[in-house]
Protein 1
Amino acid sequence: MQFNNLAFESENGIGVLTFNRPKALNALNSEVLSELKQFCEAVPSLDVRCLIVTGAGDKAFVAGADIKGLSEKPIAEAGATAEEGQLAFRALEELPIPVIAAVNGFALGGGLELALSCDYIVMSSNAKFGLPEVTLGLIPGFGGTQRLSRCVGQGIANFVTLTGDIYPAKYALQWGLAVDVVEPEALMDVCRKQAATLASRSSTAMHLSKRAIREGYDLPLREGEALEVKLFEEAFASEDKVEGIAAFIEKRKPDFK
Ligand code: CO8
């Protein structure tokens, strides 16, 4: 797959998707968002069981929406522009495979919103994050007002969004935004190791788990439990369940297809 602003490579079922506009700190313009959506549509046809998302260069994961591009947008296109980003990030969020955000530098505005659309975040110790939209007279438009509060709670989401300040990675760990903060040189190795573990798990069970957590999040508890029952039944009827339980009983590693 060839893109102008994304690089993709894969090995042993682990894919790495790199946002690749280092001169603009990997900022998101319409072309990048459209390429992300195309990439997500192609994922089921790729031989990939786990995806790592990162940014090119050593300075930025993604420094947000392309501010120069935004400056040229007519007011009438504002809603469509926000929706364009939301649809691309939703496609990423709904991928059937696990997705790790390897945040290697600035994750600002749309960049933080991108990371929040992945299943979880690992940050390098020199990464910085924030939602600076209020400093531009804007609000987050690619899902940030919704996903940040779901991830860290409303108080911290209010704090990050209203201050518009840029925060060091240690706060991501403290606030439960990132699952780990590691030395910059170790970031990709740590993520690849985690991806290898995920790639060895049942892809059916991971997909159903992702759906149960994501789709259940907005439901009342009893409806969420009902959803869990329905998805549990699907897992129970799967070939992976037969293999996983047989492997346990036979004291061997499961060989999930
Ligand atoms: N868009 C376009 N270009 C950018 C962006 C960006 N978001 N960020 C950096 N760049 C460019 C700079 O303009 C500069 O280019 P040039 O060399 O041609 O002048 C190059 O990248 C390097 O950047 P700096 O020289 O500024 O590097 P510094 O190390 O001095 O600063 C910062 C790094 C702190 C990251 C700084 O670049 C910065 O503040 N960037 C903007 C961050 C920001 O505000 N992001 C939020 C954008 S708004 C957003 O994401 C809204 C999402 C929802 C949109 C909804 C649509 C309707």
Protein 2
Amino acid sequence: MQIKSLAEYEETYKFSVEQPEEFWAGIAEKFQWKKKWDKVLSWNFTDPQIKWFEGAKLNITENCLDRHLEKNGDKPAIIWESNDPEKPSVTLTYKILHEQVCRFANVLKKNGVKKGDRICIYMPMVPELAIAVLACARIGAVHSVIFGGFSAKSIADRINDSACKLVITADGSFRGNKQIQLKEVIDDALIGCPTVEKVIVLTHTRTPVSMLKGRDLWYEDEIKLVDTICPAEEMDAEDMLFILYTSGSTGKPKGVVHTVGGYMVYAGYTFANAFNYQPDEVFFCTADIGWITGHSYIVYGPLSQGATTLIFEGIPTYPTPSRLWEIVEKHKVNILYTAPTAIRSLMSYGKEPLKGIDMSSLRVLGSVGEPINEEAWHWFDEEVGHKNCPIVDTWWQTETGGLMISPIAFVTPLKPACATLPLPGIQPVLVDENGKEIEGNGVNGNLCIKFPWPGILRTTYGDHERCKQTYFSTYPNLYFTGDGCMRDEDGYYKITGRVDDVINVSGHRIGTAEVENAINMHAGVVESAVVGYPHEVKGQGIYAFVIYPKMHDEPELTKKDILQTVTRVIGAIAKPDKILFVSGLPKTRSGKIMRRILRKIAEGETSNLGDTSTLLDPGVVEEIIGSAQKL
Ligand code: ATP
Ligand code: MG
């Protein structure tokens, strides 16, 4: 499956565009199917309706586990590194992982879980998280992993949206010198979740937790009651594999749905190619399994290719900013896949933390999540890769299932801070505001994709209309990514940022509407508007303009109360960095907030506000500018 030269890439790409069905069928042949497909692809982007490998039967865990047992049963599948560097790391071979997945799958069955049931997973970054994910897939249950930083309210919304039947969690998690009481958060969430029948609790931090009779069960007790044989459920290629909620720019969680067959082929193919994974190498992706990057490049992509994947529980700066580099040295990591926000944060400590650490095992570096700035790119290249490791700057989305525009390591000639070229099978187009395709090179536009690939989302859970509206209605017959993009003189793609209203805070996607909803829940707040502004470490910071007329208390205390509300409703990751009290917001005549004006104010760029002709009351803007200067 691996492409070895630029000429081969060009040839493969051409074939993949001219004969997409033949191309993807050829890739799919490299996976294990219980029954092959009757039809490779049927699709339209109007409904939308997309089906890959129709009629095929498979189980993704047979591809990720069983098929490696004979040759690679004793090869490490997962290496786990604890938050605490003193704690021994854990290695699970393919044989052991297979056993544990089957065992836990039997626990789920014993507790009444059936094919198609939705399961919420809210866990620390421990091997049992990957085991829980795979155990769901083993029996055809649909997993919905929620990042361990979300609040009870956010969890409840997500659980209710997909009517989850069971929750898998832990007593708590460690992140740096902090402990998060996961079970307590789940207990709060479940007050409002009538569909949840059982909660399975892993012991990890050993903090006291309440265990409700008839509902809550210990992981450790349950696995003793079952055996390790669990046949893999036969799934249709188009059966649901998982739901993953994205930040959601309209405030309501948006459950992106991926299906078994296409997702597997796409995650596996992109993993093998972009990173040039070689047998016996150690692959380290620093994302959390709660995000799509963790789903595709900690769990499914690497395991489907028989790779060794490293799971790290902690954060790059604990106990010292050398931690990530020490892990690379300790486990002889060959491929390191991380995010610009992590690179920028480590960069701020200078070169000292890298001194004396042997990172010669590194062969390939990767970046994901937001546009990487050139300074960070060069630092990564020079200080981490010693100018010896290609950097794959991978552009993709929760909705795309896997990498879309990305260099292929050792194949694609690189340009700093550039996602370069589309992977085989991906047909990007740039369009102007009216949806007209912009041809040629040296141009800017809205990035769309004009032909389906196996990893494309199939729907948003329980609300197909929303999927259509969000991705397929902006421009007819195109998948709209929401990102702006430049195609340079050489035909290389460089993502310029989002054209929608999402803020990227330290690699976490936060919808402006979601934060506004949270702020508006605070008693006394009349209305608010939230925008992002450039932040040296976080990438983007959150700037909130808040209308709060009845100021009884000190404004500073009120600000703290608002921060507390946001923490309760969404989580600490969504706390505004700046709050400005205002008496009104700039609105259009049709009542829409003009965010681009607020963005300029937040950036301190008030000399040219652009076209303000649709503004209802220009006086409001003057007032906001005045008080912003005093903040
Ligand atoms: P929501 O869809 O709810 O708004 P989100 O888009 O923030 O959430 P993700 O799917 O995790 O959630 O993020 C995908 C987005 O991240 C892309 O659309 C793009 O804006 C950005 N992104 C990811 N990788 C890169 C990259 N290599 N270069 C530039 N931007 C990137
Ligand atoms: Mg998005």
